[in-house]
Specification:
4-stranded antiparallel β-sheet, 12 strands, 8% helix
Length: 121
């Protein structure tokens, strides 16, 4: 099996692509039924709330949503371990993926020399 290492521009881009690929699905939940305002007779529409579900693995794919990866450039106090200078984030939102790569995802492929995380097979 091939692991694809992906870097999306940001989390919002990843969420959008994951939804389009069926990895993330939304099933709105009814919070409040439609009702009629007693004073005006106007119909007040029902209220729904988004309920997102993740399908991180199926028989066809597996996803490791890593997120932000930090460089190894932080500076720490030798005595206390306190952060003197925090590590800097790498660009993008990182995801590992196994399976047939969804259309258009090839533009997000990266080839890390030492992957931050790998699938165990």
């Amino acid at each position: 099996m091939i692991t694809y290492y992906l870097r999306f521009p940001d989390q919002a881009a990843w969420l959008d692509k994951a939804a389009k690929a069926g990895i993330r699905t939304n099933k709105p939940e009814l919070i409040e039924d439609e009702k009629i305002d007693e004073d005006t007779g106007e119909i007040i529409p029902a209220v729904y709330e988004d309920h997102w579900s993740w399908h991180y693995y199926t028989l066809d794919w597996a996803v490791d949503d890593i997120g932000i990866i930090y460089n190894d450039d932080g500076v720490y106090d030798n005595d206390t371990g306190a952060v003197v200078t925090p590590p800097t984030p790498m660009d993008g939102w990182h995801v590992n993926y196994v399976g047939a790569l969804p259309d258009g995802w090839d533009q997000y492929l990266v080839s890390p020399q030492q992957p931050y995380r790998v699938f165990a097979f």
